[in-house]
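User: Before I run my own analysis I want an independent prediction to cross-check against. Here's the chain; please return only the structure tokens and, at the end, one sentence I can use as a sanity check.
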Amino acid sequence: MGLSTSHEDYLRAIWKLNEWQDHPVTSGELTRALGLSPSTVSEGVQRLVTMGLVRHARYGKISLTEEGRMQALRLVRAHRLIETALVMWLGYSWDEVHEEAEHLEHAVSETFV
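Assistant: Structure tokens:
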């Protein structure tokens, strides 16, 4: 499935927001997490619904489908592995790696990971 960087950002944000809570994510939470306008988030979520990656009833909560969850976990795994590699092999400190991993997670292949 060819996901854009934007799609991947939405999936990872939904997963991260839901990681430590037992309820689906609200549009407001997602808007704040992504730093986007409510209308932009609404359009993005609707695209993910169409792709079968997200469930969202009008004015309701947002949750990942099984496929959406798998894609989000793929991104989180890549992000964490990249952070670890930057520290272990390239001499970055832990407080420097997050932003670099944010960019690189969208560019690496499954083979690289």
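Sanity check: The chain is about 60% helix and 5% strand.
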